[in-house]
């Protein structure tokens, strides 16, 4: 009976993937031959300067090729030579694959998933790293809890100089399965990619990252997984996520594309939510990201980046025009902008439907 239910669920998931042309299909690994437990797939692009630290953090925890696949997937770097770093540090232990042309980070992630052979997949950006014990801490969760599809740990934020800037918020006091996780992750991004591990079969069932997204593709994936599987949370910070002052992320921010992509993601995520809570959770998410955009705008104004600040303000208002968002935006706008936002508030919304 249980096996029949599982097979039916998997058929439904496969149909869902086939009906969605925006997600790559991740085919199962052929049954013949041995399979490692882990696949540590390292997407890289013009980050050879950091790749040495990334690889070192994995190799020091390497349980051997029978248990762990380690491979760098390079998105056709043009400014450095990641293959040389792999050869030097890997000494034949680390695989290397180079895209024939630049395909963009979302499709490069997809290539990582397709080339993986392990039962557990860890996507580790070529400029991030893991702390000692990362794999040892997360592995038991999958062995002891077959119902979970993913496990992640608290992560560290660092800058381009390896300085630690802070830690992600504590999701719960003790390690364990998260309760009501879909409702929490659906509001905002709470996981950075180097901190999370998924069963390969989850990607096989749900497909790869959504090609329509370029900034929020990881958030959409974690929400999609949370709609079908339980998550394990490890309280010990064991992964470090690098924040660059001049990265593609910053370029998205200066044009407002980050929030436009968030709006696209929210529209997609609505399909994963309980019908009775779609409006509530979507509005909470829109307001959260609108306030996030206004916080970015304030930081940019402090640095004299007026154009970037106004791009964020404009997209914040498009994302969610509530009383709280309007009140936060007003101090950032010049007088003409203030008149414009007041007219927008009066023209588009009534007091009764403002989400506070």
Q: Could you walk me through the main structural features you see in this protein, from its secondary elements to its overall organization?
A:
- There is one protein chain.
- With 356 residues, the chain is an alpha/beta fold.
- The chain folds into 2 domains: 2-244, Alpha-Beta Complex (Spore Coat Polysaccharide Biosynthesis Protein SpsA, Chain A), CATH 3.90.550; 249-353, no CATH class.
- It has helices at residues 2-19, 48-59, 82-90, 105-115, 134-144, 181-185, 200-206, 217-226, 248-255, 257-269, 278-302, 306-319, 323-329, 335-348, and strands at residues 38-44, 68-74, 95-98, 120-123, 129-130, 148-158, 164-167, 176-177, 196-199, 230-242.
- Strands 1, 2, 3, 4, 5, 6, 7, 8, 9 and 10 form a 10-stranded mixed beta sheet that branches.
- α3 (82-90) links the parallel β2 (68-74) and β3 (95-98).
- The protein starts with a helix and ends in an 8-residue tail after the last helix.
- The relative contact order is 0.11.
- Mean pLDDT is 90; it is low at 1-7 and 349-356.
Please give a quick description of this structure.
The protein has 356 residues and is an alpha/beta fold.
């Amino acid at each position: 009976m249980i096996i029949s239910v599982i097979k039916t669920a998997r058929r439904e998931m496969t149909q869902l993937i086939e009906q969605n042309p925006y997600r790559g299909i991740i085919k199962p690994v052929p049954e013949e031959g041995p399979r490692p437990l882990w696949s540590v797939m390292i997407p890289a692009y013009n980050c050879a300067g950091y790749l040495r630290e990334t690889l070192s953090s994995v190799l020091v925890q390497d349980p051997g090729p029978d248990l762990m696949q380690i491979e760098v997937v390079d998105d056709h770097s043009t400014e450095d030579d990641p293959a040389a770093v792999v050869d030097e540090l890997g000494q034949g232990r680390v695989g290397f694959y180079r895209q024939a042309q630049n395909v963009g980070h979302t499709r490069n992630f997809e290539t990582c998933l397709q080339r993986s052979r392990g039962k557990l997949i860890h996507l580790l950006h070529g400029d991030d790293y893991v702390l000692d014990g990362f794999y040892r801490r997360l592995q038991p969760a999958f062995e002891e809890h077959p119902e979970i599809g993913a496990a992640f740990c608290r992560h560290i934020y660092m800058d381009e100089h390896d300085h630690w800037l802070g830690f992600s918020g504590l999701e719960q006091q003790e390690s364990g399965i998260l309760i009501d996780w879909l409702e929490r992750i659906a509001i905002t991004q709470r996981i950075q990619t180097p901190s999370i591990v998924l069963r390969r079969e989850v990607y096989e069932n749900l497909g790869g990252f959504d090609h329509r997204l370029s900034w929020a593709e990881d958030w959409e994936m974690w929400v999609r997984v949370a709609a079908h599987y339980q998550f394990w949370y490890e309280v010990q910070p064991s992964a470090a996520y690098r924040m660059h002052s001049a990265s593609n992320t910053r370029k998205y921010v200066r044009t407002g594309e980050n929030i436009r992509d968030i709006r696209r993601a929210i529209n997609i995520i609505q399909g994963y939510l309980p019908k009775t809570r779609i409006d509530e959770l979507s509005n909470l998410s829109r307001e959260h990201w609108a306030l996030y955009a206004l916080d970015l705008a304030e930081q940019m104004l402090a640095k004299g980046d007026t154009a970037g600040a106004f791009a964020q303000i404009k997209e914040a208002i498009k994302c969610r025009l509530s009383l709280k968002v309007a009140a936060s935006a007003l101090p950032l706008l010049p007088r003409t902008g203030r008149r414009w936002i007041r007219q927008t508030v009066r023209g588009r919304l009534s007091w009764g439907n403002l989400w506070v």
